[in-house]
Design goal:
alpha+beta; 3-stranded antiparallel beta sheet; binds zinc ion; 18% strand
Length: 146
């Protein structure tokens, strides 16, 4: 339904995981991806760009409009914010690296499962809740919009 797409940023230092709801918008819709380092020199244009915690995504809005309008979405609501916040082209998870981060963090807790099952369940719960709180305090917009 929606796949994971791994896309490098302009400077090549970072990579981000993306999902696209119903596979409606193909990856080339993202014309530029800037990580917190390479976004510094970029002039932000809200007509084509959306930002999240130092990252900037630029979309081919003309193509995005054609794709989304063919699904019955009215032209006036189609903005970069709309595309990102509704998940038509957005981080896979809460952050650009959420998928890998989550796997790594969970692996640590899973080690406990074999040793102490009760403690494992407690840790797992605390991790799940604490994680969302931490991401929220870091300022990621997908968590803020929960
Ligand atoms: Zn970069």
């Amino acid at each position: 339904m929606c796949q994971n797409h791994i896309i490098p940023c302009e400077c090549g230092r970072e990579k981000a995981n993306f999902m696209n709801l119903y596979d409606l918008l193909p990856p080339p819709i993202l014309t530029h991806l800037y990580c917190p380092s390479c976004s510094k020199g970029v002039t932000f244009d809200p007509k084509t760009m959306v930002r999240d915690n130092g990252w900037i995504l630029a979309f081919d809005m003309q193509a995005a409009r054609v794709f989304l309008m063919s699904e019955g979405i009215p032209e006036e609501v189609i903005t970069p914010d709309f595309i990102f916040d509704k998940g038509y082209f957005s981080w896979n998870g809460f952050t650009p690296t959420d998928i890998e981060d989550k796997l790594k963090e969970r692996k640590e807790i899973m080690k406990l499962a074999k040793v102490d099952r009760r403690k494992f369940i407690e840790e797992l719960k605390a991790w799940g809740i604490g994680r969302v709180e931490r991401l929220k305090s870091e300022g990621w917009r997908k968590v803020a919009n929960l």
